[in-house]
Design a protein that fits this description.
By secondary structure, the chain is mainly alpha-helical. The chain folds into two domains: 36 residues; 98 residues, no CATH class. It is 74% helix and 0% strand. It is globular. 10% of the residues are buried.
Length: 136
């Protein structure tokens, strides 16, 4: 059973990596076709929760955490939360202890969702006040 869970975990990791690489290749293609930009921002002149996300990921990959937070704080916080869950799942699989997989683990995700909404509101209030962290 442990081997099957580990194989499933590895398969999910490969799918995740493939999806991320595909996403960035599509973004690069869209940029070459002149289709870059956020439709929500173009219509409302407000930032959507994902605005600056690509630049934040790029900064995070360069280990520039401060710039990543400036572009979009959701990315480093979400990455930390993902890493926490990913490591906890791997440890539980290796120890053959499925309690983590079955216990109530949704509270951090709920907190993240609340953070996402609060970040969206505060970020746009600051933008309307003339403070734009993505240009600082």
């Amino acid at each position: 059973m442990k081997k099957k869970r580990l194989e499933y975990y590895i398969l999910v990791q490969f799918i995740l990596i493939f999806s991320i690489i595909s996403f960035f290749l599509i973004l690069k293609l869209m940029g070459k076709l002149g289709l870059s930009g956020c439709t929500f921002f173009e219509i409302t002149h407000l930032y959507c929760p994902g605005c600056g996300g690509t630049r934040a990921v790029g900064s995070l990959l360069r280990l520039d955490v401060i710039s990543s937070f400036k572009y979009n704080a959701i990315v480093p916080v979400g990455f930390a939360l993902f890493l926490y869950y990913d490591i906890r799942i791997l440890i539980s699989i290796l120890k053959n202890d499925i309690r983590f997989l079955s216990e109530n683990k949704y509270i951090p995700l709920l907190i993240f969702a609340i953070f996402l909404v609060a970040y969206f509101i505060v970020r746009n209030i600051l933008l309307l006040a003339g403070i734009d962290f993505m240009t600082i």
